């Protein structure tokens, strides 16, 4: 430690380490503010997890008991209320629609970047514009159609709807990844006489695998979160996890620990997928506009 | 100039210039795109057309015998119905308030996270977490665990700090709209922050360093270099945020069930169609939402397009 760093004690470490140009004191204050804001934002989530592990009387105490004894009763109570079929429905709708999205979006993105069709920008922006129209305006005709063909309360209807809901996002994301595939590799494949499927499968897919994975995770999150269509188009058989959660909208006596346990359980898949896709999250949310 | 884009467009124009065989070649080129494109058209565009048709009809599932075309009656009803008018105003209020607040917060946090400090990655992860809670679950969390007047955390903290005599407001009852707005802001600030942080990190650092060496101070750099560079990103964040928030249903449904003057247009449409079964009226309201969002989304498309051109240059 040199004498100069000794003067600005707490900031010395970071200042030296990162070669700051700002005065260290304001640097420390800004870092502390950043940490505080981060804690404020994450605190409700931590509180949700903590409350889910308290007994109902402790969870409902005012002032709050931060250090009450922990129990899994909230989770036991939640799992005894029958959430497994809805969770499985959600898993099915999200996984199948995501698989379908990739199956359809991958060739489409190929036709919009590597071997582009005529007016490919128009097609891209048409796809984007469909995401900007509020889904609620198309809800009624889809409901009437499902009613007519007997697809109400059928999970496959949600699979179809979620596939279309996510296709534009996936195509936009995959297109930006495919644009990075070296042309030489594609030309070599063409010279070797490789067909479309072989080119996609053995040349393009390995290069864009990370992009494909994050697109899949983002589509999974959007499908898993969806409430409005699931609520209108399903009843008891195909009910999804968010629809099941709406059963907690009205208060029912001491049930806070159970509500928090339910919220934690239903959110876990999204948290896992979201943290896994962290770096590509912006790209997905902005339809690939921001890298 | 990237070679990928050049050679790709070169091939495309080469294909169109050719005569006979290019027709088959064009279809071969289109084939991988068609399944996805047709499906999107079928499931997103067709229902809108049907919605427009139904919006001009008297169509109520409870009175099937009275079904028929009525011209613009539904639009007149929607625009004169106090509930529908309130829903239009609430939609605008929710969207503007949520987008402005989360944009300002997101910008401040993005600026804080653009600096290097110990635990920056941890703080970034903490910031993203609210966005990764299922919206219904997040709304339940705010409704029951935070806002509840008897056992919610907000009043609990007030009692902890100010003792047993502390004020115990009924947050949702007294400020229903703000209760909904803040619950949405909590989830959307991370979104704004992520886009703006990506914008900050795409600044040309060498030019900023040069300005600093030339004696520009932090405020001058922010005002004259960072902010102009961020403009597109701020626009994009605001427009995409608006598009998502205009459509918000989960928070309104969960926190207030559309009561206390918080019903927005998506909730109004849901209610008119799902509870009242007035399909004609619901469709007219749907058409109004679409017209409203077309205005926002045209601007959004333009912004995306300018970023798109910048990147493929």
Automatic annotation (TrEMBL), chain A:
Pfam families: BPD_transp_1
Membrane-protein topology: Multi-pass membrane protein
Subcellular location as annotated: Cell membrane
Gene3D superfamilies named in the record: MetI-like
Any GO CC annotation of this UniProt entry: plasma membrane
Annotated spans, Disordered: 1-20
UniProt GO BP: transmembrane transport
Domain ABC transmembrane type-1 positions: 87-277
Alphabetical UniProt keywords: Cell membrane, Membrane, Transmembrane, Transmembrane helix, Transport
Membrane-spanning parts: 28-50, 91-112, 124-143, 155-174, 195-224, 255-277
PROSITE patterns: ABC_TM1 (PS50928)
Family of this protein: Belongs to the binding-protein-dependent transport system permease family.
Protein's name in the database: Mannitol ABC transporter permease
From TrEMBL, chain B:
Membrane topology designation: Multi-pass membrane protein
Residue span(s) of domain ABC transmembrane type-1: 88-300
Any one of the GO CC terms: plasma membrane
Gene3D superfamilies on file: MetI-like (1.10.3720.10)
InterPro entries referenced in this protein's UniProt entry, alphabetically: MetI-like, MetI-like_sf
Alphabetical GO biological process terms: transmembrane transport
Transmembrane domains' residue ranges: 33-57, 87-113, 125-142, 178-200, 281-305
UniProt keywords, alphabetically: Cell membrane, Membrane, Transmembrane, Transmembrane helix, Transport
Ranges of compositional bias, category Gly residues: 12-21
Subcellular location: Cell membrane
Keyword Transport annotated: yes
Keyword Hydrolase on entry: no
Biased composition (Low complexity): 1-11
Region spans: Disordered: 1-23
Family that this chain belongs to: Belongs to the binding-protein-dependent transport system permease family.
Protein name: Sugar ABC transporter permease
Organism listed in the record: Intrasporangium chromatireducens Q5-1
């Amino acid at each position: 430690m040199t004498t100069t760093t000794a003067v600005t004690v707490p900031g010395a470490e970071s200042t030296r380490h990162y070669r700051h140009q700002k005065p260290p004191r304001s640097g420390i204050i800004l870092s502390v503010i950043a940490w505080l804001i981060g804690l404020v934002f994450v605190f409700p989530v931590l509180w949700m997890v903590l409350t889910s592990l308290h007994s109902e009387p402790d969870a409902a105490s005012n002032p709050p008991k931060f250090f009450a004894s922990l129990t899994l009763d909230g989770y036991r109570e939640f799992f005894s209320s029958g959430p497994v079929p809805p969770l499985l429905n959600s898993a099915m709708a999200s996984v199948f629609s995501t698989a379908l999205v990739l199956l359809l979006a991958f060739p489409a993105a190929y036709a919009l970047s590597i071997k582009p069709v005529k007016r490919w920008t128009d097609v891209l922006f048409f796809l984007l514009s469909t995401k900007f129209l509020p889904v609620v305006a198309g809800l009624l005709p889809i409901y009437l159609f499902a009613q007519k063909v007997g697809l109400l309360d059928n999970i496959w209807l949600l699979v179809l709807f979620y596939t279309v809901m996510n296709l534009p996002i996936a195509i936009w994301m995959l297109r930006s990844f495919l644009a990075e595939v070296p042309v030489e590799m594609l030309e070599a494949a063409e010279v070797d006489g490789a067909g479309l499927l072989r080119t996609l499968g053995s040349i393009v897919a390995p290069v864009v695998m990370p992009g494909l994975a994050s697109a899949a995770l983002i589509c999974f999150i959007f499908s898993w979160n969806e409430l409005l269509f699931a609520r209108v188009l399903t009843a008891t058989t195909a009910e999804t996890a968010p629809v099941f959660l709406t059963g907690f909208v009205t208060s029912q006596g001491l049930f806070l620990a159970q509500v928090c346990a339910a919220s934690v359980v239903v959110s876990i898949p999204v948290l896992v997928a979201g943290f896994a896709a962290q770096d590509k999250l912006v790209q997905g949310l902005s339809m690939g506009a921001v890298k | 100039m990237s070679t990928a884009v050049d050679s790709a467009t070169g091939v495309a124009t080469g294909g169109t210039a050719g005569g006979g065989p290019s027709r088959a070649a064009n279809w071969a080129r289109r084939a991988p795109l068609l399944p996805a494109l047709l499906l999107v058209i079928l499931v997103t565009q067709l229902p809108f057309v049907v919605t427009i048709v139904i919006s001009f009809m008297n169509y109520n599932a409870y009175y099937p015998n009275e079904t028929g075309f009525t011209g613009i009656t539904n639009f007149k009803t929607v625009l004169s119905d106090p509930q529908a008018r309130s829903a239009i105003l609430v939609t605008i209020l929710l969207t503007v308030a949520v987008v402005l607040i989360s944009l300002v917060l997101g910008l401040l946090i993005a600026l804080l996270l653009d600096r290097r400090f110990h635990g920056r990655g941890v703080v970034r992860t903490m910031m993203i977490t609210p966005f990764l809670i299922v919206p219904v679950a997040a709304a339940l969390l705010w409704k029951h665990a935070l806002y509840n007047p008897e056992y919610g955390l907000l009043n609990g903290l007030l009692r902890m700090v100010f003792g047993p005599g502390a004020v115990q407001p009924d947050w949702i009852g007294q400020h229903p709209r703000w209760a909904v707005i803040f619950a949405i802001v909590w989830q959307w600030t991370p979104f704004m922050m992520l886009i703006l942080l990506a914008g900050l990190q795409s600044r040309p650092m060498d030019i900023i360093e040069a300005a600093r060496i030339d004696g520009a101070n932090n405020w001058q750099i922010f005002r004259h270099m960072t902010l102009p560079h961020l403009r597109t990103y701020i626009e994009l964040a605001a427009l995409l945020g608006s598009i998502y928030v205009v459509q918000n249903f989960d928070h309104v449904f969960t926190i207030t069930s559309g009561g206390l003057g918080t019903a927005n247009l998506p909730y109004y449409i849901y209610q008119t169609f799902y509870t009242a079964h007035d399909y004609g009226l619901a469709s007219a309201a749907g058409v109004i939402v679409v017209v409203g969002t077309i205005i926002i989304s045209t601007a959004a498309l333009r912004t995306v397009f300018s970023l798109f051109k910048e990147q493929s240059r």
